[in-house]
Each structure stands twice: as structure tokens, then as C-alpha cells.
Amino acid sequence: xxxxxxxxxxxxxxxxxxxxxxxxxxxxxxxxxxxxxxxxxxxxxxxxxxxxxxxxxxxxxxxxxxxxxxxxxxxxxxxxxxxxxxxxxxxxxx
Amino acid sequence: xxxxxxxxxxxxxxxxxxxxxxxxxxxxxxxxxxxxxxxxxxxxxxxxxxxxxxxxxxxxxxxxxxxxxxxxxxxxxxxxxxxxxxxxxxxxxx
Amino acid sequence: xxxxxxxxxxxxxxxxxxxxxxxxxxxxxxxxxxxxxxxxxxxxxxxxxxxxxxxxxxxxxxxxxxxxxxxxxxxxxxxxxxxxxxxxxxxxxx
Amino acid sequence: xxxxxxxxxxxxxxxxxxxxxxxxxxxxxxxxxxxxxxxxxxxxxxxxxxxxxxxxxxxxxxxxxxxxxxxxxxxxxxxxxxxxxxxxxxxxxx
Amino acid sequence: xxxxxxxxxxxxxxxxxxxxxxxxxxxxxxxxxxxxxxxxxxxxxxxxxxxxxxxxxxxxxxxxxxxxxxxxxxxxxxxxxxxxxxxxxxxxxx
Amino acid sequence: xxxxxxxxxxxxxxxxxxxxxxxxxxxxxxxxxxxxxxxxxxxxxxxxxxxxxxxxxxxxxxxxxxxxxxxxxxxxxxxxxxxxxxxxxxxxxx
Amino acid sequence: xxxxxxxxxxxxxxxxxxxxxxxxxxxxxxxxxxxxxxxxxxxxxxxxxxxxxxxxxxxxxxxxxxxxxxxxxxxxxxxxxxxxxxxxxxxxxx
Lengths: 94, 94, 94, 94, 94, 94, 94
Fold this sequence. Notes:
The structure is a homoheptamer. Chain A is mostly beta strands. Chain A has a single domain, classed as Roll (10 Kd Chaperonin, Protein Cpn10, Chain O), CATH 2.30.33. The N and C termini of chain A lie far apart (29 Å). The model of chain A has no long low-confidence stretch (mean pLDDT 85). Chains in contact: A-B, A-G, B-C, C-D, D-E, E-F, F-G. At the E-F interface, strand 1 and strand 7 of E face strand 5 and strand 9 of F.
């Protein structure tokens, strides 16, 4: 089974937060309000969304920063995904 | 009797949540805020809705993920349906 | 006396909820937040409403499902009506 | 002195609620949230209002149903009027 | 010194509420939520305001009814003015 | 160092409130919700702002009345400025 | 790794607040609601954002004043960045 997002929606999969920094310091895991890194799994077709033309600018495989509280969590075949609107993606990490 | 949705509305019927995963683990049923899987029963004609052109992208029989709190529950002939706007449907499950 | 709705408004009259299901079970009447079935009594002319073109898609005599909290109750000659906007009508029951 | 409403505004004068129904039952007067019947006293010119073209559809003398909480009460020469936007008028009573 | 309002703003000066009615009854002054009568002192140029074309329809000297809570009080040379948007003016009193 | 405002923003500098009126009465300083007089220090270029064309109508040196709670205070080289949108400026004082 | 902002977003890096003024006075650090100075690190492409054409007016290296509560904090390789929309940038400091 796979998720095919509609409109300007994007399916992402959260990356494990690195809990040890380069310099070897262990970071606390409780920082609840931080944005998250995720990998793009599937991208909607874009087009007219709520009366506005949306062009999709991310693609599957991109690593992205997103607004944590904007998405909807979905569980499918024991995998957890998050479905966000493209406008909730803040930046691509290269 | 059948429901004929207006505008960009979609009639869906909730699928029973699978309570046993592939690996045989029984999942709790109380997770109230999770999005839901549903099957599309009927689809409105789309067109101009609130001043915006809406093209319907789901069809009867599609399995979809929707935002649980967005719909309106309707009971008809002992069947329970949910009427949502197409924009409350996040993704199609294939 | 009769009500002539303006713009995209629709005058409806609530149908008595069937309190006995096909299988003979008596349903409780207290379910306050459920959408309601109603019959359309009069339909506004549509046209430009709040800067948007609205085409009326229901007609007098239609049985409809509407969002219960959206309308305004009106009493006229001992009859009770509800005036809703067409966008508060979710589906036609055929 | 008279009130000349601007834009899409309408000056109305509340009709006394009939407190005795046809069948002779005295109705309570305390039902605060009910919509009200009123007579149209003066009608603004319509035209561009908040960036949208508004065509006036009521005229002086019309009996109308309006949303009670939408208007502004005005007292002029011992008369009490209510100034509403035309969109707060739900229906004409004929 | 004088106030030159920008955009669709209008400078008005509140008229003393008449505290004695025609029939000689003294009215209480505490009715806080009533709309107010005022005289127009200066009128902005109108034109494009917040992306919408606004045509000014009041002029200096007009007596108007306005929504009391919408304006901003300004004191200049011991005079008190109120600056409102034209859309907060409900009607002209002629 | 100087502040160069973007879009429809205007940098203003609050004028000391005159605490003695013409007639010699000392005014209290605690009136917190009053609009303020300020002098315009720098003006953004205007143009398309949030999808709307904005034409700047104030210029450096103008004395203006503004909505006190709308701006953002900025400290630069021991000077305190306020950055507001032009639409928060109510009138020019001439 | 680097951050490539989408749409009208801008990646900025907060400048250390100068805690000693020219005149040698030590400023308190607790002033939580003040806007902040930051340096622009990366700028999105602009273009159609939420149905509106946005032209980017800041560039990497600019020192800017921004609305403190508007951005999202991001940590990457031990550096802390803030991602804001260009409209949250109030002025450039030259």
C-alpha cells in the first residue's frame, strides 16, 4: 500500500533526531516545539488548491525542515508518515 | 435512499480500523485524534464552490485518509456516513 | 404569508426524526449535535453573494441534510422554518 | 430629520411581535435570541462595498426577517431604528 | 493645526447627546453602547485602500451616525476628535 | 546606522506628549490607550505588499497620528524608533 | 549542510545583542518582547506564494530587524538559525 497525496499535500517521514552532536554532546529529546527534519516520501500534483495555483517545489527524497504542528500523522503498514501542505515546509536541507 | 452531495462535498464511509498489525500485535482502539481511513461512497459535482473552481479528484470506491474532525456524521437507513469537503481528504491509499 | 429568501438563502422545514428504525429499535431523541433532515420550502435567487457568483442547486420539495447549527429559526403563522445558506446544505437525500 | 444609510446598509424599524397567536395562545416575550420581523424604512445605494458590487434587493416598506444580533440601534426623534447590512436580512415576508 | 486623514479615514467630532427629549424627559447619560451622532470635520482622499477602491461619500459638515467602538480618539489643541474609517459610518442624518 | 523600511512600512519617532496645554493645565501622563503623535523618519518603497498595490502617502518629516498598539519598537544607537505599516497611520497633522 | 528556503522564506541568524551602549551603560538582557537584529543567511526564490506574487528584497549578508515571534528556530550542525517569511522583516539596517 502507498499514500498518494492530493492537491498541494506532501507525505513526509520524520528523520530520527541526531541525539549526539558532532562534538559528542548528548542532546535532550524533550524539546517539544522544535521544527523537525523529515524526508519527502510522496508529493501531490499541485495545481489549483483553494483557488490558488500551487507549483510543487519539493520531490521525493528531499530532506526538509517543516513546522512540526502543521501536519497530520498517518500510520500505514506499521510505518508512520506525516501529511503536510507544501507551505508547511520551510526549507530544504542540502 | 441515497445521499447526493452538493458542491465539493464527498460522502465517505469509515473503514474498520485494523486492530491487529501484520506482525500480530493488537493495537489499542482509543487513539482518538488519529486520521481515519474511509471509502468514498459518493462525490459532489465540484465546480464553483465559494467563488473558487474545484475539480473533484476522488471517485466512489477510493480508499482515502481524511482529517477526522472535519466531517459531519449522517445516519441513513441504519448506515453511518461522513460528509466531508474534498479538501479534508489528505491522500488516496493505493 | 410566505417567506421569500434573499441571495443564496434557503428556507427549510425540519422533518420529524424517525424514532423507530427499520429493525424496530427506538432511538433516543437527545442526540443534539447530529445533522438534520429537512425539506426545502423556498429558495433564494442566488446570483452575486458577497462578491461571489452562487448558482442555486436545490429546489422546493428536495429532502436535504444540513449542518444543524448554521441556520436561523423563524416562526411564521405557527409554522417553524429554518433559513440557511445553500452552502450549509450538505447533500440531497434521494 | 431622517436617516440616509450609506453603502449596503438598510434602516429598519422593528415590528411589534404578535404576542397572541391565531389560536389565541399568549406567547412569552422573553425569547431573546429569535430573529425579528421589521419593516424597511430606508435603503442605501449599494454599489461597491468593501471591494464587492452589492445590488440592493429590498425597498422601503418591505417586511423582512433579519438576524437580530447584527444591527446597530439608533434613536432619532424618539423613534428607534436599527441599521443593518443588507446581508443581515434573511428573507422578505410577503 | 489640523488633521488630514489618510486613505478612507474620516475625522469626526462627537455631537453632544441631547439629554432632554422633545417631550421634556431627561435621558440618562450612561448608555455606553449606543451609536453616536457626530459631525464630519475632514475626509481622506479615498482611492485604493487595502487593495480595494473606496469612494468617499461623506463630506465635511455632514451629521452622521457611526459605530461607537470603531474609532480612535485624538486630542489636538484641546479639541477631541475621532478618526474612523468611512465604513464605520452607518448613515447620514438629514 | 540607519533603518531602511521594507514594503509599506514606515519608521517613526514618537514626539514628546505636550504635558501642558495652551491654557496651562498639566495633563496626566498615564493615559495608556491614546494614539500618539510621531514624526516620520523613513518611508518604505511601497509597491506590491501582500498581493496589493500600496502607494506611500507620507514622507520623512511629516507629523502623524498613529494607532499606538500597531507598531514595533526598535532601538538603534540609543534612539528609539517605531516601525509601523502605513495603514496604521491615521492622519497627518498640519 | 545548508538550508535552502522555499517561497518567500528567509533564513536569518540572530546577532548578539550589544549589551553595552556607546555611552558605556550595560543593558539588561531580559527584554523579551523586543524585535531583534539578525543577518540574512539565505533567501527563498519568491514568486507565487499563497496566490500572491512576492519579490524578494533582502539578500544574504543584509542586517535586518525582524518581528521576534514570527520565525521558526532551526538547529543545523550546532548553528541556530531562524526561518521567517520576508514580510516578517521590518527594515534593513545600513
